[in-house]
Design brief:
Elements (H helix, E strand, L loop, with lengths): L11 H18 L8 H14 L2 H15 L6 H28 L15 E5 H20 L5 E7 L3 E2 L7 E4 L1 H20 L4 H5 L3 E7 L4 E6 L46
Parallel strand pairs: 2-5
Antiparallel strand pairs: 1-4, 2-3, 5-6
Helix pairs in contact: 1-2, 1-3, 2-4, 5-6
Bound molecules: adenosine-5'-triphosphate and magnesium ion (MG).
Organism: Durusdinium trenchii
Keywords: ATP-binding, Kinase, Mitochondrion, Nucleotide-binding, Transferase
EC number: 2.7.11.-
């Protein structure tokens, strides 16, 4: 895909990503399919999953911003490129993670029967973990914390105890990633320019509802929302903190990467 971007070899970030991925695919091809050493294969798999870190994806996003200055690339083209690239990365990472989680322990894997899918993923516990994680990042980077409130409902029973679990079959790592990113956005927007008294009056609500077939999670805040004139641009990689020209140094785990940032997502 990178080679599909004219002039990719003139952009250092794209060059670096291209050479890493080419090396990894070459490494993978060298494995003899007739005599797979599972332990070695697991090592290659883990190395690959870790090698395209968020920092590297961020560099790709930065390179994209450089391309955006070039009239040859429209915003639509660059969004389309990044969508395709990230979709393919997420797809491969999911397969690699699944391989590693299913592989026997003697082959260096985790020997989990259902791999990365948890048949008892607890949406309530997961939301709380995500909020704790986002709170720690927020405290570290702003020195402040918003109030988080939980509502927990079950169809036919009404309100549940706040801690009552909500089990469903899902890949917890992906849901955690989404929740942390949504909460970081809410935390950041809620705290921006607010006094301690205002922060106390603007709790962030996490609502978890379930019936027999569905689980729905809603995050709502009182930070003022996103202006309607922003419209569909909210979905663009070229909108947001990263696109506003933050560089590698000013991006923090709270915001600025443009594609989220979470390392411990398993
Ligand atoms: N809950 C919210 N309330 C108000 N504005 C929001 C909220 N969530 C997002 N936004 C606005 O949308 C912009 C884009 O958010 P998004 O998370 O997509 O990008 P980002 O925060 O720059 O990405 P990243 O977190 O990876 O840096 C934010 O910079 C902010 O202006
Ligand atoms: Mg964000």
């Amino acid at each position: 895909m990178i080679e599909g971007l004219a002039g990719w070899d003139q952009i250092p970030e794209l060059n670096e990503l291209h050479s890493r991925m080419r090396n990894w695919y070459r490494y993978l091809r060298l494995i003899d399919p007739h005599c797979i050493d599972l332990k070695r294969f697991a090592l290659v798999v883990v190395h690959e999953a870790n090698s395209v870190s968020m920092r590297r994806i961020f560099k790709l996003q930065r390179a994209n911003s450089q391309c955006a200055d070039d009239e040859a690339y429209t915003d639509d083209f660059l969004d389309h490129f990044l969508d395709g690239f990230l979709l393919s990365r997420i797809g491969s990472n999911m397969l690699l993670d699944q391989y590693f989680a299913r592989a026997p322990k003697e082959a260096g894997g985790l020997a989990r029967k259902t791999g990365i899918i948890s048949p008892r993923c607890d949406a309530v516990a997961l939301c709380k973990q995500a909020a704790d994680y986002a709170s720690r990042i927020c405290q570290m980077h702003t020195g402040q914390l918003p109030v988080v409130l939980y509502d927990n409902y079950e169809a036919g029973k009404g309100a549940c105890q706040a801690d009552s679990p909500c089990y469903f079959s899902y890949i917890p790592g992906y849901l955690r990633y989404i929740m942390v990113e949504l909460l970081k956005n809410s935390f950041k927007a809620t705290l921006m320019g607010a006094t301690a008294a205002e922060i106390a009056e603007r709790p962030i609500h996490i609502l978890i509802c379930r019936d027999e077939c569905h689980v729905a999670i809603r995050v709502s805040d009182r930070a003022g929302g996103i202006p309607s004139h922003v419209g569909e641009r909210i979905w663009s990689y070229l909108y947001g903190a990263a696109a506003r020209g933050s560089d590698d140094c000013s991006a923090t785990p709270l915001s600025g990467y443009g594609v989220g940032c979470l390392t411990a997502n398993k």
